[in-house]
Amino acid sequence: MTRTADHLEFEIKDALLADAGAQRIDWAAREMPVLRLVRDRFAREQPLQGVRIVACVHVTTETGNLARALKAGGADSVVIASNPLSTQDDVAAALVAEGIRVYAIKGEDTVTYNRHVRIALDSRPQIIIDDGADVIATLIKERKEQMGDLIGSTEETTTGVNRLRAMQQDGQLSFPAIAVNDSQTKHLFDNRYGTGQSTIDGILRATNLLIAGRTVVVVGFGMCGRGVAMRARGLGAKVIVTEVDPIRAVEAAMEGYQVMPMEKAVEAGDLFITVTGNRDVIHTRHLERMKDGAVVCNSGHFDVEIDLAGLKLIADGPKLLRPFVEEYRIRSTGRHVIVLGEGRLSNLAAAEGHPASVMDMSFANQALAVEHLVKNRSRLSAGVHILPAHIDQDIARLKLMAMGISIDEMSDSQRAYLGGWELGT
Ligand code: ADE
Description:
The protein is an alpha/beta fold. The chain has helices spanning 18-29, 33-45, 61-72, 89-97, 110-122, 134-142, 158-169, 184-207, 223-234, 246-254, 262-268, 284-287, 308-314, 346-349, 356-375, 389-402, 412-419; strands at 2-5, 8-11, 52-57, 76-81, 101-103, 127-130, 152-155, 176-179, 215-219, 238-242, 258-259, 271-274, 294-298, 315-322, 325-330, 336-340, 383-385.
């Protein structure tokens, strides 16, 4: 549905879903006390008054709360989806009903996705909240003349931060970009506990498989891989980890997981979960050798981790078995491989993404990063920045308070000891 109502343009599935969406955004808000405090302060202080923001994020109930916080701070936002399959159409409708321009429809094709990126850029954003760096990449490639409008950008995810660093290396980053992913209160929690739980949630909602007793291969042992491996083990799976980084591989081994190359893991695995951020980590040569009925899915940002294009060349299909569950028959062997969510983020395609309680800290970081950019407008150098440690610590303290947890304080003599060198043996 595309409409101009009260001068508000948008493109969503169905405006009639707005009430249901608002109710679900409110439900998530109960789990987002830190963002709530930020929002309340924004409402009083109006730090984003008149600032034009584009937020390219997964349009979920948690994002609904971020969008409300930005609006409360006075921002003029356009929200677009950061993935074709992750939009919650009722949330998109609710935000439109609250006066926010949204361009996001669950299941939109990549042409529509890219069109939405360009519509968003037409609003001449001063701040871009990116999740995967597609908006920034398009700005650099196609809209150099708009660079002057930009105060800066923020980036939500590991993949996007990698892309920003590559842009910087390439001399293309002419503005400050805040790597929100690199805040401790983001990646230690969202990437680990969020991806861990929501990935299993997506697999279960899509397939209703029993995890206990199955061999689960977790491809990649970064923060996301750790979370997925931990939760799969918790449900009784035998977990194999594959890695390319020797230090992470040692960590996985000492956590008690079996570690082996993919060439070997393919024969043992019942369920494969990619979380590397890299391409073709499950290649057709791996898919060909998997057990009949092996399930493969991805929770990395882009749909490049499983070589689906290659699979389509060697297999018949896909045959849709259930929503988000597609079966391919490999012609040379007659074996079947089952792919979840078209190789896109299974936790957002088949479930609702990370729970609100972790997104609370991620999106408090986002809101405070936007404020930081505005407050320090033209003082921050071009390039990738992380948020100051005191902001990270404040977010953790507020989260602890909301969780009803108090902690100890260092004494003056302890502080002096840690800051000194004279006292030893
Ligand atoms: N990324 C992962 N989970 C998410 C969620 N629930 N909302 C927005 N972005 C997400």
